[in-house]
Design a protein that fits this description.
Layout (H helix, E strand, L loop, with lengths): L9 E5 L12 H10 L4 E4 L4 H4 L9 H13 L2 E5 L7 H6 L25 H18 L5 E5 L12 H14 L4 H8 L23 H27 L7 E6 L2 E2 L3 E3 L6 H4 L5 E5 L11 H13 L5 E6 L13 H11 L2 E6 L25 H14 L1 H7 L8 E5 L1 H9 L14 H14 L4 E5 L4 H4 L4 E4 L7 H12 L3 E5 L21 H4 L1 E2 L3 E2 L5 E4 L1 H9 L10 E5 L2 E2 L4 E7 L7 E8 L2 E6 L1 E2 L2 H15 L13 E6 L5 E7 L5 E4 L4 E5 L2 E3 L5 E3 L10 E2 L4 E4 L3 E6 L1
Parallel strand pairs: 1-2, 1-10, 2-3, 3-4, 4-5, 5-8, 8-9, 9-10, 11-12, 11-13, 13-14, 14-22
Antiparallel strand pairs: 6-7, 15-19, 16-18, 17-20, 18-23, 20-21, 21-22, 24-25, 25-32, 26-31, 27-30, 27-32, 28-29
GO biological process, one term: carbohydrate metabolic process
EC number: 3.2.1.23
GO molecular function, one term: beta-galactosidase activity
Length: about 700
């Protein structure tokens, strides 16, 4: 069994000796530059199958060995990736069917991640290169762990292999009973009924989301199985003090955004010892810290609070992401504030050819030090010090708020878009609602975890408040668990389009919300798109917003309004300000058992969502030391392995912020000014110095794009 933790904070970068200009041999120079910057780990090999195996059965690990030996000479650890996410030309020439067929047609060679992960030929040759590589490197003293594949997904494969396995899966699930399958999925509609297994159609043209959603769920299970298959092979050779990881990622909108559509992270994490993640985000004037926090909270949550490694984040990144002075250091500590035990950049040097030529690494194309490299060194040298890194490692969270998510709802709401009910691809989708909720909590300095729909009752009981943003598809077991959560004293907040269908996307045929009308004290059976539909708020909610300096008068409903009919005794927090819909509620709360349940029947704009959730958090009795600093600095907390509470005060702003300390303790990381060249100077005007003793209420200034970390 591999290790499930690391011995120090890992700081590093991906390194590709294979990609260097062939006229250069500077590997030892690179390692020395890394050592100077405090880099203690590199990640290699995950995208170099064609170099490792130039022809079938001919292996050449020259570049792997060069990297391992150079790292060993420099005292730098290595994570070795299995090179399976980019297939070599000879494999495609021999077995064209390794390329995935997608709804856009047959695959063509060139890009990465174009293969059918269940294809037998791909699996055969993939296993061979994994075995040869891992057996070759496992006993090297620099190797501390392995990354299986890279940002693995099902790549929208609808290849014959994938669809054949899907039919086999359905036959097992429904005990070979086609009548049961037809009834479950409602396939009588538009003559979609399947009366013989031999007649099973190509699912890519299906208009039935129950069948489409089941196919998506099946393909996600294949991702989990694929990663477990690779991890099992690696573990045949791995030593007991080495770990297996994978770099999960998120829905991509030019940066990491929301729940990953093609992977169930809660399922796939079982394959690895330590979860890894890739988090990319806007910087410069657009740096908010939200994507860093979202990615970290999700990754920590999938392994029930365990620490994780950021295996990829940007250094210089793409155009428009060159960090302002101070931002790279702030970003790195922001990852640690979420519970990361490692931060690694993609990548060390900027590539001189091909697709990612301008996704720049720590070094630019001249391969010389620059301000980004220098600032990375400021962070690297700081966390290498035991008095800093030793107190920030293995941060554990004790959050009282959780957001419940699932991939099935994401998939269903791509087909039944919130604003139209049809697959138009327009308007907000599932992740927009998830992020609207998450971002509001982030801005309130209310930290949260993520939980899956199959979380057991004992897990739900750890929280005082659970939010279900657009949780469209859920099994009845989830509804029963949420009912019990409220009855036992919890506060449940659910938004529009929650609890509409079962987990096979069949709409419930009783009063909405199914099984929970008495819990929420309401029902509804109509909804529509709003046009000029304002919101009017109850006095308590309006006062709560006003006390925070927020003006929510004139707020408008957006995307969809559910026409909520509250029962007697249900509190109406907001109603629709419109002559046709004035008799319906928009936001309600109802006591049930020892707890309460709140329903948000429309998509609120960010300011109003924050106001509603602020009042909900207050109602739930959720305490947070950072609440009174919301809007000034971001506050994130955890407990280190010494039992100290570690508080991060993060200023995502180009302006200095003056605050009173919310905690007492010792400054572990003080404010330092990063000058234009990327080096740091101690400067008490941007934060107290490390080692300073702080009491609650002490005044401090935190400089632009700066931070202070206090342990107490």
């Amino acid at each position: 069994m591999g290790k499930n933790t690391v011995d120090r904070i890992l700081f590093g970068a991906a390194y590709y000796d294979e990609y260097m200009p062939k006229s250069l041999d500077r590997i030892d120079t690179d390692m020395q530059l890394m050592k100077k910057a405090g880099i203690n780990v590199i990640r290699i090999a995950e995208s170099t199958w064609s170099t490792c195996e130039p022809q079938p059965g001919e292996f050449d690990f020259t570049h792997v060995d060069r990297a391992l030996d150079a790292a060993d000479r420099a005292g730098i650890a290595v994570i070795v990736g299995t090179p399976t996410y980019a297939v070599p030309t000879w494999l495609v020439k021999m077995h064209p069917d390794v390329l995935a067929v997608t709804p856009n047609g047959p695959g063509k060679y060139g890009a990465r991640q174009i293969m059918d992960i269940v294809n037998p030929a791909y699996r055969f040759y993939g296993e061979r290169v994994i075995r040869r590589l891992i057996s070759h490197v496992a006993n090297h003293p620099s190797v501390i762990g392995y990354q299986v594949d890279n940002e693995t997904k099902y790549y929208d494969s609808c290849s014959p292999d994938m669809q054949t396995l899907f039919v086999k899966y359905l036959r097992e699930k429904f005990d070979d009973d086609l009548t049961e399958l037809n009834n479950h999925f409602g396939l009588d509609y538009w003559s979609n009924r399947i009366n013989s297994w031999e007649d099973f159609p190509d699912v890519t043209g299906s208009i039935n989301q129950s069948l489409r959603g089941e196919f998506d769920r099946f393909r996600r299970t294949q991702v989990a199985e694929f990663l477990a298959w690779q991890a099992d092979i690696v573990r045949e050779y791995a030593l007991d003090d080495q770990f297996v990881t994978q770099n999960f990622d998120f829905e991509w909108r030019g940066y990491s955004y929301g729940v990953q559509p093609a992977v169930n992270h809660f399922e796939a994490q079982a394959a690895v010892d330590i979860a890894g993640i890739d988090i990319y985000h806007p910087t410069e004037d657009d740096l908010t810290g939200k994507e860093i926090a979202f990615g970290g909270d999700m990754t920590r949550s999938i392994k029930d609070g365990a620490n994780y490694i950021v295996l990829e984040t940007e250094a210089q990144g793409q155009h428009g992401w060159l960090p302002f002075p101070g931002q790279l250091r702030l970003q790195a500590y922001s990852h640690l504030a979420g519970g990361a035990d490692g931060v690694m950049y993609w990548h060390w040097h900027s590539i001189h050819n091909a697709f990612e030529t301008y996704w720049k690494g720590l070094l630019s194309h001249d391969l010389e030090p620059n301000p980004t490299y220098e600032e990375a060194g400021v962070f690297g040298r700081e966390v290498a010090a035991p008095e800093i890194g030793g107190r920030l490692r293995h941060l554990k969270k004790r959050n009282r708020v959780a957001i419940m998510v699932n991939n099935e709802s994401l998939s269903a709401l791509e087909w039944f878009r919130i604003d139209s009910g049809f697959p138009t691809g327009t308007g907000p989708n599932y992740n927009d609602v998830v992020r609207r909720v998450y971002d509001a909590l982030f801005e309130l300095n209310v930290e949260c975890d993520f939980i899956p729909v199959d979380a057991p009752a004992r897990k739900l009981a750890q929280y005082g408040m659970i939010v279900t943003p657009a949780l469209y598809c859920v099994p009845e077991s989830t509804l029963a668990a949420l009912r019990g959560f409220v009855e036992a004293g919890g506060h449940l907040v659910s938004t529009l389009r929650s609890f509409v269908t079962d987990d096979e996307v069949t709409v419930w045929h009783d009063r909405a919300p199914h099984m929970l009308t008495d819990v929420f004290g309401l029902t509804y059976n109509q909804f529509t798109r709003p046009k000029n539909v304002g919101l009017s708020f109850a006095e308590g909610l309006a006062d709560s917003a006003a006390s925070a300096g927020e003006d929510i008068s004139g707020a408008q409903s957006d995307v969809l309004i559910e026409l909520l009919k509250p029962a007697d005794g249900t509190e109406v927090l907001a109603s629709y300000d419109h002559y046709a819909w004035k008799d319906y509620a928009a936001v309600t709360r109802h006591g049930f058992g020892s707890g309460s349940a709140e329903w948000i029947g429309t998509l609120l704009d960010p300011t109003v969502m924050k106001a509603v959730l602020r009042e909900a958090v207050d109602h739930a009795g959720i305490e947070s030391v950072g609440r009174r600093l919301a809007g000034q600095v971001t506050v994130r907390q955890g407990v280190n392995e010494r039992g100290e509470t570690v508080t991060y005060l993060l200023n995502y702003s180009p302006e200095s912020v003056s605050i009173s300390s919310p905690v007492a303790g010792e400054v572990v990381v003080g404010g330092r000014s990063i000058v234009t060249e990327g080096t740091a100077v101690d400067d008490l005007t941007v934060g107290p110095a490390a080692g300073t003793k702080i009491e609650v209420g002490n005044a401090m200034t935190i400089g632009p794009w700066n931070l202070v970390v206090i342990a107490g």
